[in-house]
Write a structure and sequence with these properties.
single chain, alpha/beta, 25 helices
């Protein structure tokens, strides 16, 4: 149960004064539905209104708070002209300009013959100082309330800074002092304020340094969040060790049969990963391991060999993929080699219906199928396994927590192997997963050719098309990627379909189209045309980012490459270079390139090492951006920033371990405080997330 002292923070924001239905919708859009979401929404900037010059001394372009006498009002002759309030002090005069203003309100707010304090950005207009639409107006008695540093919060259309600040101030009033959960020695060393004091300071910055991740207030709050996460992860690891598993120790005969049938030798990385996975499966505890492999590093073969071990001891293995296309490709690859070892492999997707699905379900339940490859259909309640021993989840971040749990719960003491083609930097691994066992496939398969990566502006599009024509004439195939624009599927769809139509004018029926709004049958048909080389160009959105294997494709064109993340561009580039042809990746961008976009593209041109690219992606962008804000099962960090808080992550990891070693059940005074911390950052839910792999 959540401690009673935290109840007010987890109330709905409409419990705050002044938050009606309309304002609730706007605030919720920016921060979230609860008061605790508001207190975690820290300022992104500040406005310093302490600058209080005379009119003559007010610097153009600066925000100033000036005491003036209201001299006169000038009502505009036409609606397009501004309403002007003329004011002065003993150094000169200035104009306050208002467009589409209400005359009665202005006359009341700026009464002639009285002093007022106005605050806003000063500008020069026709040789006179002017403030257009002052941010604030007050009486001289209220002046001090204006001459402050005001935080700037993220907004949405219709939401003002004033309303957002009022909501956050009201939220801060709901906080109470809580028992200290951070080790006192660390608090003293870092000169950190208490949790509540840190919140107050973070929301009331007095200068630019208070907005940095290294400020005392923000680093304290980041540490609190990291400590909560690391504590939850360690509690999960302890629970994992207590859950009964099973030893899947065979003779290795089936693995060897498959290895003997492969037309290639395993890389050093594959052999190491296989040894680590075999050791986990042989142990009497449940395996929870992640297999990280760069694009095209051979994860599927390692997964197949692990599944052969499960089958050898009489168990079944299930491999779940996020899309039917990827599941189909896994199925075809796995079946080709598994049948040599006498293993029956079947594919189960939502498209398998009627008597065929019924017969397949019966075969799975009867134990006649050793390896089942599928999509979300695998965790349907009507799919029953005779003895599910191993679950492999490909691109695990694309599945929800409950979906992953549902599949693992279909067996007893099931081993779990998750796979990702997105290399994750060590800092992010530690932050999101703790010390989860990880195997990495770094080296590329023998014969994999490097991709020649080139960046050029969009106005070179016609020269790219000319190059494509020459290469298609020589038998090459082309991926042509259109971006996801402003997170809008509609715009994304328009971009892809328009480019498809445009390319058809140049290449006729050689152009196929794939996007997320197409029906599954249409998508598969278009992809199959490309795989069979019936289409030379595949125009697509990022739907082809993961899992599409077309060895003959040797050209990747990415339009508006500056709109893609570094890791995503690397994934896209990984679709080519899988055959014998020299491969080219053209990154087309809108000139001029911003500093961040140029840095990303330069990294891609210099290296093809996915782990190096992931580290650079983390350096160039926020943690949440690298993982993706919708990555299911990942803890969402609201306060911690990487790499800025990497040192705090290491300290939090160590501190959490010491705390649990001394007080495993968190029953001491500090243990009780740490429990409160877990609830404050909602890491009791994080425990279930990590358990799902």
């Amino acid at each position: 149960m959540r401690p009673e002292s935290l109840f007010p923070l987890f109330s709905d924001i409409n419990a705050l004064p002044g938050i009606g239905p309309r304002l609730k919708t706007l605030v919720e859009r920016v921060a979230g539905p609860r008061i605790v979401d508001l207190i975690w929404t820290l300022p992104t900037g500040l406005i310093d209104r302490r600058y209080s010059p005379k009119i003559a001394d007010a610097a153009s372009g600066k925000i100033a708070t000036i005491t003036v006498m209201i001299d006169s009002h000038e009502v505009p002759g036409t609606p397009k002209r501004p309403y002007r309030v003329i004011c002065s002090d003993d150094s000169g005069s200035m104009t306050l300009a208002f467009f589409n203003a209400r005359k009665a309100w202005l006359e009341a707010a700026y009464p002639i013959g009285q002093q007022r304090v106005v605050s806003g950005r000063v500008e020069e207009f026709q040789g006179r100082r002017q403030i257009t639409h002052p941010d604030f107006v007050a009486t001289p008695e209220e002046a001090e309330s204006l001459r402050t540093v005001q935080p700037v919060y993220p907004l949405t259309e219709g939401l003002t800074q004033h309303a957002m600040k009022q909501a956050i101030d009201a939220s801060l009033d709901r906080t109470v002092d809580l028992p200290e959960w951070v080790d006192q020695t660390l608090v003293s060393q870092r000169r950190w304020p208490s949790w509540r004091a840190a919140l107050q300071l973070a929301h009331r910055p007095q200068g630019p340094s208070d907005l940095t991740s290294e400020s005392l207030a923000r680093s304290r709050l980041a540490y609190d969040e990291l400590l909560a996460t690391q504590l939850a992860l360690l509690l999960v690891r302890e629970r994992q060790r207590r859950i009964k598993g099973r030893s899947l120790a065979g003779s290795g005969e089936l693995q060897q049969r498959i290895l003997d049938s492969l037309p290639f030798s395993l890389t050093d990385g594959q052999r190491t990963a296989l040894r680590e996975i075999n050791a986990d499966m042989h142990a009497p505890t449940r395996m929870t391991r992640m297999l990280q492999g760069d694009v095209g590093s051979g994860k599927t073969v390692v997964a197949l060999l692990a599944m052969a071990t499960a089958a050898e001891v009489g168990g079944q293995a299930a491999l779940m993929a996020p899309t039917e296309l990827l599941a189909q490709q896994h199925f075809e690859t796995i079946r080709r080699f598994a049948e040599v070892a006498g293993l029956r492999v079947e594919l189960l997707t939502s498209r398998k219906r009627g008597s065929g699905r019924k017969a397949l379900k019966a075969a799975i339940e009867g134990g006649d199928v050793s390896i089942i490859v599928g999509t979300h259909a695998l965790f349907s309640e009507d799919v029953v396994f005779r003895d599910l021993a191993l679950v492999i989840i490909d691109e695990q971040h694309r599945f929800g927590v409950q979906q992953r749990l549902a599949l693992a719960s279909k067996g007893d003491g099931v081993d779990t192997l998750t796979m990702t083609a997105t290399p994750i930097p060590r800092t992010m691994m530690l932050a999101a997963y703790g010390d989860i066992e990880t195997s990495k496939l770094i080296d590329k398969p023998v014969g994999r050719k490097p991709v020649d990566t080139r960046a050029m502006p969009m106005d070179r599009l016609y020269s790219v098309v000319a190059s494509v024509k020459r290469r298609i004439a020589n038998g090459s195939q082309v991926f042509w990627i259109c971006p996801l624009i402003n997170d809008s599927d509609a715009l994304d769809l328009t971009a892809a379909t328009k480019r498809h139509a445009w390319l058809q004018q140049e290449f006729g029926s050689k152009v196929a189209l794939v996007h997320g709004k197409m029906k599954a049958v249409e998508k598969d048909a278009a992809m199959q045309r490309f795989i069979n080389n019936d289409a030379a160009i595949l125009v697509a959105t990022t739907i082809v980012e993961v899992g599409v294997d077309v060895p003959n494709a040797s050209i990747m064109i990415v339009e508006h490459a500056e709109r893609f993340g570094l890791a995503q561009l690397h994934q896209l580039r990984g679709r080519i270079g899988r055959g014998t042809r020299k491969s080219f990746c053209f990154l087309l961008y809108d000139a001029p390139l911003g500093e961040m976009a140029r840095a990303r593209i330069d990294v891609l041109r210099k290296t093809s090492d996915g782990f190096e690219i992931a580290d650079e992606d983390l350096r160039l962008r926020e943690y949440g951006e690298v993982l993706g804000t919708q990555q299911s099962g990942m803890p969402a960090f609201k306060l911690a920033r990487f790499p800025e808080h990497s040192d705090l992550l290491e300290i939090a990891r160590s501190d959490a371990r010491v705390a649990l070693d001394r007080d495993p059940d968190l029953l001491s005074d500090r243990g009780e405080a740490l429990r409160r911390l877990l609830y404050l950052f909602e890491r009791e839910e994080g425990v279930r997330m990590i358990l799902s792999g």
